[in-house]
Every structure is written in structure tokens, then in C-alpha cells.
């Protein structure tokens, strides 16, 4: 078993409801520091709700969530604010402010959470934009002027603005063509290696799971039903696992892996 200080995220017996519907129930999960974990499951099963719960945007009715050793429910507002600086979030559609340029979007967390001088903020912003592979000219563009892949990268630059320890990614490759998706996967993998990040990503993308995920967690029946490597998933006998990992797309992704 991993030691306590090797765990970046620990979820124990969590129950989350939306209205009168139970979305997550008796959910347990541990994410190790420095790993990329993919969360998969049927559409509508609650992957995004799980991510929102982990960053405090949805409050569990029961259970505990610890991020970087801190119980979210017991933190005072000032402590929560300090903790939130230690993670970054890329939402499914990038969630950029449409009235702001890429640079202004990336500057938002720096202006909100720091008192750095303007010139330092601008320098850091340019650094983050370059870090995600965008040309410097992209800084002055508005989201509507960007391709889908560029918007994802701009959202990722904003998520990295405060030098987080954890990245939460919600369907990072959705709506991207295969070449763009593969390039984003490679970028996420490089960022993990170069910055020492822990990454938790909700995804449907089998290619992403094969390419960059160290472990996979399967969310089904309101809870995590399997956790392990790709080889573990291929051996697991849960019905959804069999259909997903052994279906035509699963076999195609597996056969496309380098020997």
C-alpha cells in the first residue's frame, strides 16, 4: 500500500447527490503523487461530478475528500483559498472568458490570487503560453479566433498559471481530431515529467489511456469498480470493462500501440 505522503488525493465513502438523484455513492479512490490517472465510465455516470467534488464545486453529503493531505470539508475559507492555488483545472470546453484575450485569460488567476506587479504577471503569462506550445502571437487572440486545440492549450496555460501540484482535466481531448488529441496527450505527459505534476483526467479517449495514463479508475454503478493499469483493466471482468476495453475501439487502440 502507498504511504500516506505518497497519496495526492484520497476519497473515502463519498456520496454526492444532484437534487434527489444519487450520483456518487460509497465511492473510494486514491491517486498517487506524480501519476496520471484516467477516470472512465459510461456517459452521464458522474465523472465530471467527481472532479467538481474534488475541487470543492460540489459538496458531498457523506464521506471525506483529502487533497494534498488536507480534508476539504474542515478547511477554513483562508485555508481553502491557499489550497486551491495548489491545483489547476481544465474544464471540458476550456471555459475561457470569451471577452478576454488568451493572455488576459491566463492572467486571471495571477491577478486574483497574487499581488505580483503587472510586468511580472505579463512575463509569467507569456511563459505559460509558451509552455503549452502556443505561439506568442496567440496571446492577443480571443477564444473565437482559436481552433479547438488552441483553446484547450489556452485553458491549460491558465490552469498552470499558479504552478499547481495537481491538474484536474475534464475530457481534455474531446472534440479534437486524432492528430490534435495525440499532440495534447503528449503535452500532458511532458508537463507531468517536467513539472512533477499529479494528473487526474476524466476521459472517454482510449488512446489517451494507452498513451499517458499510469493507472485507470472505472466509475460505474455510482462508485469506482476497478482501479489499475491497462493490463489490469483488460483482465477485469466487470461487464462495462469488458465492453469498453475489449470492444472494437479498444482492440484498435491496443493494436495501434508501439511494439
Characterization of the model:
With 259 residues, this protein is an alpha/beta fold. Strands 6-7-8-3-9-10 form a 6-stranded mixed β-sheet, with helices on both faces. Helix 3 crosses helix 4, helix 3 runs parallel beside helix 5 and helix 6 runs parallel beside helix 7. It starts with 6 loop residues before the first strand and ends with a helix. The mean pLDDT is 91.
Structure in a nutshell:
By secondary structure, this protein is an alpha/beta fold. Helices cover 39% and strands 24% of the residues.
Mean pLDDT: 91
How much helical structure, as a percent, in the residues?
Answer: 25-40%
Overall geometry: globular
H/E series: EEEHEEHEHHHEHEHEEHHH
Give the distance, in angstroms, between the N- and C-terminal Cα atoms.
31 Å
Query: How would you characterize the largest beta sheet?
Result: 6 strands, mixed
How much is the radius of gyration in Å?
18 Å
Question: How many strand units?
Answer: 10
